[in-house]
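tool_call: predict_structure(chain=1)
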Amino acid sequence: MPPLRVILQEEHMLRSLCNKTGMGMIEVLIAILLTAVGLMTILSLQSTSLRTVGKSDFLGRASGILYNELERNEAFIMNPSNLVTAGTTGPTPVLVSYQPAAVEGDITFQVTTVIDNNGLGANTWRVTVTVTWPPLNPTGITENIVVARQERYRF
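tool_result:
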């Protein structure tokens, strides 16, 4: 049997634990208020995050179209058998799915390509591609590349 002193200490601890009266009305109201403020903050950020996700989706699709167009023009110009004409092509409508008709989730992008060789020397061209998706982004994104003819690409 444990000593009386230990039994009294344990009994005192149990009583102090059992004598807690719980949370008062003010504590409950403060907890509800803090939870409501936290939820409102998260909900207010939701629309901003959805808008940002949408913008990044369009930007990712546009960059894929842009680099596809740059690579296509680069391969065409590098082959000495092809006749390259300087000038502007477009704006040409392009669907992300590359299908003849729009499918669900498609958006029409406008692709403008400019090929020039001003001051670049013989057999060298600058290809500038601009991809826009009006009315959401009428300025779009632009990239350019300098391409030189390569005899080993002749076919």
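agent: The mean pLDDT is 82. Proceeding to next step.
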